Structures are given as C-alpha cells and as structure tokens.
Amino acid sequence: MPELPEVETIKLGLQKKIVGLTIEKVEVLAPKTFIGDARSIQGKKVLNVWRKAKILGIDLGSLSLLFHLKMTGQLIYDDGKRFIGGHPTPDMRDEMPNRSTRVIFEFSDGSKLYFNDQRRFGWIRIVGEIGDLFKKLGPEPLEKDFTWQNFKNNLLKHKSMPVKVALMDQSVVSGIGNIYANEACFNAKIDPRIRVSQLSDSEWQSLHRGVRKALKDGIKYGGASRAHFVDAQGHKGYFLDYAYVYGKDKHPCRKCGTEIKKIQLGGRGTYLCPKCQKVVE
DNA sequence: TTAAATGTTTAAAT
DNA sequence: CATTTAAACATTTA
Fold first, then answer.
1. A97: preceding bond cis by omega (within 30 degrees)
2. A281 is a catalytic site residue
3. Residue nearest to nucleotide C9 (CA to C1')
4. Helices A4-18 & A201-220, crossing angle to 10 degrees?
5. How far apart are alpha carbons A196 and A88 in whole angstroms?
6. N or C of chain A: less Cβ packing under 10 Å?
7. What pLDDT does residue A239 have?
C-alpha cells in the first residue's frame, strides 16, 4: 500500500529511533516473506535508514536490509511507545504480534520492530552491494533535478495510455501509486483519462507541479496512513481525511462542491471531480 | 455473495 | 518487436 510519502514517513521515524542500535534477534514467522539468512544480520549495527522509491533500506554496513510493503505492509516500532507506518488497520494498537505479523526484529535496547502484512505481498530481503539493483526505477520526483521536461520525456514512453495509469509506472517516475496519481491529476486539473500524447506543455507543467504537491502534502501529513505515535492513552484519526479525491466517491469536491465521481482505469479505482478536472471525451 | 483494497510481475492481447 | 491490458498473487473487509 504505501507509496513514496508513507515510506518516507517511516524512514524519518525509524531514523530517529533505531540508528545506532544493534539487531539482537530476528524472528521469521513467515519464511516466504524473508529472503536471505536472518542469522547473518544478528549482531549488526544500524548505521542509517534510507528510502528509494517505495523501498525502505536499513544500512548495516556490509549488508543492507530492504523492505517493500506492497499493498498491506505495516511497520510497528515499539520501545514502550509505538511508531506505526504503512497500511492502517484497526488492530495496529492492539497486542503484538498479531496474526498478520510476519517478521519480528529485536534490538539491543529491548525495543522491537514488527513487520505485519495482511496480504503477504510484501517482502524483506538481505543484500550486499546495492549496485544496479534500482536501475529499472525512474527518477525521484522530489529531487531538484526532476524537471517538467524530464518528466514529460519519461512519461511519453506511454503516449497512448491514460495519464493516470502512466504515472504509476515505476520505471518512469519513482514512488507514485494509486492515491497520489489520483491526487496529482486533481491538483493539475487534468482528467485522469486523457492520453499522455494529448497533453499540452502547460498541462505538462501543471501535472509536474501537481505530482510534487501531492507527494509533498503526503509527507507533510505523515503519509496517507498518517504514521503516528501511539501512547498508552491511544490515538485517533489517521486516515485519508486530507485527500481531495481519493476515496471521496460521492463526497462534494473541496474546491467546487461538485460530487466526486469514481470510475475504473487500468483496473484501479480512479476518482475525479468532473468540474475541476477538464473533462475529456 | 461479490467487489475492492495505498503494488508489482508475468502473461496475453493489440 | 513494442506497447497496452488483464490476470495473478493472498487476505480481509465493506
């Protein structure tokens, strides 16, 4: 589930928590989820936590631990309080491990990191050198060298695709998934169904801006799942209440009041405001 | 009961 | 051959 902003949020949270700690123990409850020899990272110290596209990395020196949360992956760090990121579920404040827990890491100070994944699409793997592992991934959309011309050239690889579908191709741009593709189109006032080749340069510029705004807003709000700290008192509210269109089927548009419409595009739920987003066809 | 869910890969169809 | 679309993966919840 998590897209770039969700993974970025987890990265920022874990950086503050686990850098400097040593991995004391790794408990693999779902062997298919963990690729590599878990024993090889025991006793290793966490040097850094990073992100590339939707992949979270933990730098252990000679080795790196990579995480991909796919649709329903969730990371819960517990050191007395809890820091949670990824797929939001009602049971994330309850007893851990639960039935979705796949891997448990225990650190030198007794704190624990739980990797939960309801649908089991996600994975954790141990790698040596990163090398050209990410060669197929497109540029990071929030880097300063990501210009609108750059964006246009990459996306034109799919000139006959609906623009929203093309946005989700990871080899074109890194980190955009279904939520932010929808939000980016809304921000740019562009109908998600319009074909890539139909866009004018001014639309390319506003789509480029729209993508970056959606992702930055996502990070600002702590991700769509609102990764957050949970204390003994518990916490409320972590959902997508900030989104303009995603999941807002039949809600009034926050900009103009028109009812948000849901359609299917490339097999995925797609949301748009029929008034704000210049309708095509 | 059927449909859909924040992703990626592979197969099938243009 | 290149590009686009659909299916598969596995599970839960509306």
1. yes
2. no
3. A121
4. 30
5. 33
6. C
7. 44
